[in-house]
Here is the input.
Amino acid sequence: MKILVIQQKMIGDVLTSSILFEALRKAYPEAQLHYLIYPHTKAVVENNPFIDKLIFGKNTLPFYKLVKQIKIENYYAIIDAYSTVKTSIITSFSGANYKIGFDKKYTRPFYTHVFNRTIEAKTNAGAAIEKRMRLVTPIIKDAPLQLKPKIFLTETEREKAKAKLVEGGVNISDSLYMIGALGSSAKKTYPLPYLARVLDQIAAKENTSILFNYIPSQREEINTLIGHCNTQTRQKVYLDIYGESLREFLALTSFCDAIIGNEGGAINMAKALNIPSFAIFSPALNKANWNIFEDGKHNVSVHLKDFSPELFTDKDQEYLHKNVFELYDKFLPTLMEKPLHHFLKINAK
Here is the structure.
């Protein structure tokens, strides 16, 4: 028996949907479990013991060949966690007994089972987790309501990361923080002058070291951020230590006491490594969709709406996206001082 899960989207989505494999492996221990993803998201599911095979779409196979390849596999079930027109066509032509996806008017005819994407979460796992877990219910009786995403690092990867930290001058006994300074877009990036004040609050604690999640092309922006920080903060930054690959970033993060910064893939990856997180949501985003496993202690998030709900009264998504920068201006760093202080007190060494 073969089962395919489709999630051709961003890294955070691929990681989150990987929870389905743990449930499927328990229910079908002898099944071949395959995952259709984009090549650049491979790093978050490498070494996952619940996944037997990765299949790469986009830039590796023409669409018609991908459709043909999926049909040849003769899957018992396909769970389309992406549910776009293209992936629903792949699912429809597969010949699978179970064709499961999210309910959209333009994809509904292609599936045997559909589920609403809009739900009220019943646990602190959050809607992003629970709505995905519903997708396995047609083929798993009494499926779990929630599972936590997991990333699997090798000992070699962690040993190399530790050596890089030590050789770079980091004291492993310090409280070490990974900073997610840049979001996936400007609309998902907390203003750098404001973030500098957040970093100053972090660095005010004794025995603190700071790393950044960035790629070389973003170094100028990171330097701009550091330029807004006070002298004490700058002295605690190790800018030359960064992940030169996604797997190296994950290995470095595994030694951190917390990740702090813009909500996004890096935050979700840290959670999958059981690293505490403090996420800053863009005012344009619905916090309820992605504040997974929030507990007020080890996983905390802040949104402008938490402090100024009146700014969001009767405002639709179009308004929020159009006015996101004006809303960011109102999201002053002083608003999050208290929750950040509480978070640091709990999670610092």
Remarks:
- The mean pLDDT is 95.
